[in-house]
Every structure is written in structure tokens, then in C-alpha cells.
Amino acid sequence: MNISDLKKTYNYSMGAIHIHSKFSDGSGDIEQITKAAKKAGLDWIIITDHNLMEVKEGFYNGVCVIVGEEISPKDSYHYLGLGINKVISPKIGVENYINEVVKSGGFGFAAHPNEADYRKNKAKSIKWLDKNIVPDGIEIWNWFSDWADNYDDSNIFKIAYGYFFKHKLIRGPHAETLKWWDNLNNIKKEIVPAIGGVDAHALKILKYIVPVTVFPYEQMFKTINNVIISDEKIPNLFDEQKKYILNALKNGDNIIINRHVKDTIPLISFADNKIEVQLLDNAEIRIMKNGCMVLKEVDKGLIFPVKEKGKYRVEIYINQKPWVYTNPINL
Ligand SMILES: [Zn+2]
Ligand SMILES: [Zn+2]
């Protein structure tokens, strides 16, 4: 089923999270960003500038724009505060800003918690250092961090490869992040929700005197998206739509999908006694129970009978490339 078919049949919406505008270190204004989002087929986006919230929320070019904050100290613990009603300072310390986000009506996701210890390009890694500090949720996959972890700038050929074949550098969520996420889900009764982020900046750099936009917004918006599939119809009014989207993310009702690997949406349903996956083509489907793989199968779909209680989630790979991660669900 392709995206437009799916849209006719289900209440579904697709969005990109973790976007920087010109108010922090991005290059676009909201007009340019939402035009790009519209072209990429997105229904909603979440802007998270560093330590400020200057973009005004609302509908632009038919795209629902929600504004959060990437609470960003210099070296570590970047945190995407969503649904908050004021800017929260990174200076108060990570444990305090996690609490402050909740106090101001929101919830948060640890951003790019495990950037690589060693990067060939020497770009600084910003991590979630102490994993005992528990966030509300986790950005398990960040497109830009994934690229930067694997980008080699040691010679002109490798630089060119990194830009022209950028998608080949994408490896998927960091193993340590998935382990941390699964562990937290095993400890906690409720779900620790996950999102995927693009971390789009559309940086303009002056290269060989010609200004080029590195990773333009539209390209980034066609990579890691979050798809919300719900029984409830998507409200039309902004305030209600915003609430609907944020609630879905808080409850883990989204699946994380890299559209560059395949631009369709899998049908995945969780019922008390079975998990059902339907795809258009063969892919490697993994069923995870409490963080452990209980089934790995290459197929166009499957029905997995659930015999034991646990937190279940699904991962899907195409030609070894990570494509889809669902949130866990208590069955
Ligand atoms: Zn960051
Ligand atoms: Zn960022």
C-alpha cells in the first residue's frame, strides 16, 4: 500500500522532528522550511531551535508547525522539550530541565544520546553521558548524527562521497541507544516513547567560493520521519491538532521510518494475541520482546502469535538497511 492509499484508508499523518531554523543554527525561515516540508509530503513538523522558541506556531503552507526547544548545553545532554510554554535554560542542569519541561506542561526526548566516541572528521560528539539520568523519551535515531558519525573528510574523494552518497553513510540507531531504550522499557511499567529526528539545519557553506546548501530541508524531510497511525481522526483546528500530535508522540503511537530506504508505510498491527506485519515487498522483519529478538524472518509479511506477556516492538530492514522501528507496546 503506498502513502496516498494509506491516507484514504487510515487516520495517518507524517511529520519530521528536530529542525533548526535561522533563529539558531539553521538557514531557513518558516516560509522556506514549510514549503520544503509540503514538497516532502509532510503533514506536520516540530521546530526545535537551540535554547529559544522564536518561530510562531500555526499552519504554514498547509503544514502544522509545532515549536519546541532543543535545550542544549555546550557539551552534553541535549534535550528536545516539546509542548512547553516557555523557554527553559540549559544552565539549570539536566535533571532540573527534565523536571522543568514536565512542570511547564510538556515532555522531552534525549537528543542524539550516543554520538560516536571517535569520528574521523573530528566533529565533537555530544552525548547523554550518565544513562542513570532518565529522560521522558529518547530520540533513538538522528539522521545528522548518524551521518556525522560516519563522515570521513580525510581527502577530497571521501568528502565528495560523504556529500553525494550521503545516504550510504546512514547506519541506523546506535546499538547503545537501543540497549538503553530497551532497558528503560524493561524497568518501567509504562512505555518509554521514542522518536526519530532529522536534525535539519540546511547549512549554507562557502565552498570553493560557491555558496552551497548542505543537506537542504526538503532532502532531510524525506529521510527519518515519524508516522502516527490512529483510530482517532486528525483534528483540523491548530490547537487540537497540536495536542493530538504531541499526545501521540508522548504515548509512542508513532513509527519511525527512513523514507529514503523505501517511501511507503508498512502496515503493522498489534493485538493481544498476535502481531501482524504487511509489506509490499520482501524485507527482514524482526520481532523484539523486552529488547530480545524473538523472530527474524525475510518475508512480505507475517503473523506472529503472542504467547507470553511482554513489551513487543518491530524492526524492519531492506537489504540490510534499517528502515522501520516501532515503539514498544505492552501485550
Ligand atoms: Zn543537539
Ligand atoms: Zn539539533
Structure characterization notes:
The chain has 331 residues and is α+β, with helices and mostly antiparallel strands. The protein has two domains: 3-265, Metal-dependent hydrolases (TIM Barrel, Alpha-Beta Barrel); 267-331, Immunoglobulin-like. It has helices spanning 3-9, 30-39, 94-103, 143-150, 156-164, 175-187, 217-221, 238-251; strands spanning 11-19, 44-50, 58-60, 63-71, 79-82, 107-110, 137-142, 194-197, 204-207, 210-213, 224-230, 254-258, 267-270, 274-289, 292-305, 311-318, 321-326, 329-330. It is globular. The structure holds zinc ion (ZN) (2 copies). Residues 18, 20, 70, 199 line the site of one zinc ion (ZN).
Quick one: CATH superfamily of the largest domain? Metal-dependent hydrolases
Instruction: Examine the coordinates and then state which fold CATH places here, giving the name of the CATH topology of the largest domain.
Output: TIM Barrel
Number of strands: 18
Helix amount: 10-25%
Name the bound molecules. Answer: zinc ion
Proportion in β-strands: 35-45%
In angstroms, what separates the terminal alpha carbons? 26 Å
* Total helical elements: 8
> Quick one: CATH class of the largest domain?
Alpha Beta
Number of domains: 2
Could you tell me the radius of gyration in angstroms? 19 Å
Structural class: alpha+beta
Oligomeric form: single chain
Which ranges are low-confidence, i.e. pLDDT below 50, for 5 or more consecutive residues? Answer: none
What characteristic shape results from the CA principal axes?
globular
Overall mean confidence score, pLDDT: 93
Could you spell the SSE succession in H and E letters? Answer: HEHEEEEHEEHHHEEEHEHEEEEEEE
CATH architecture identity of the largest domain: Alpha-Beta Barrel
Largest pleated sheet: 16 strands, mixed
